[in-house]
Amino acid sequence: MSDIDSEEMDEEQISLGTYEGGRNEREERHGQGKATLRNGDTYEGMYENGKRHGNGVYRFKNGARYLGEYLRHKKHGQGTFIYPDGSKYEGSWVEDQRSGFGKYYYVNGDTYEGEWQNHVRHGKGTYLYAATGTNYIGLWNNGKWEGQGELVHANHKFVGLFKENRPEGKGKYIFDIGCEQHGKYVIVPSEKDDKGEDDEPSAAATTKWVAGEVLPVHIKTAEEEEEERMMAEAEKIKLQLGDAISEKVQLSCYVPG
């Protein structure tokens, strides 16, 4: 993702440049208007009481542009952002952040479609890796695979639990030839480097597949599908509760300067 050098300038905090358009009784920008900022950026769209508000198009001097809704000077609602490297996001915004449901088109051909929070992939979504055709379909936490998910390859897929962008815990491989293998991924600590006693050991670790029995592919009953759906929903709620608790702790620990 490419957010560098694509921050909008606040017209109230810099030299305003030029403006053509409507004004209210207080001579604030109001209604349809076009502004050319001193830094080379331009905005054309709706204003309300001096702030970008409603639909508009903001063009950055570096070639990036945003087309969509504003609320009191911030990207808020539905909008499309085209970044300087050619990547693009289409979807929901909340106070200048990608939040809600949206689709991101990456410059290498990858795509992500699903839920966002505070500018990162968070919630339920699907990521397609263009180079291999592999899909990850499942839950995300702060930009990483976490919770119930599926990693779908050309002729097989893994269905199970993920953590920190890797499978971890119980799951199964389902093969197109009509069989599935149950098992689990366990954490395997990496070997320690030759270091002195006072040196920090490497914290890196990998996971290893511990295979179980191979069975014919099981066709899920309606009850099993509903149970799986409820488990996925429970994982999602767990993530949301974790975010809420974290935010509450941060607020409770805040000490005014």
TrEMBL record:
Presence of keyword Magnesium: no
BP GO terms, sorted: axoneme assembly; spermatid development
Acidic residues bias: start-end ranges: 1-13
Alphabetical keyword list: Repeat
A GO cellular component entry from the record: motile cilium
Basic and acidic residues biased stretches: 22-31
Keyword Repeat attached: yes
Region (Disordered): 1-42
PANTHER family per record: RADIAL SPOKE HEAD 1 HOMOLOG
Entry protein name: Radial spoke head 1 homolog
Organism name: Biomphalaria glabrata
Protein encoded by which gene: 106051009
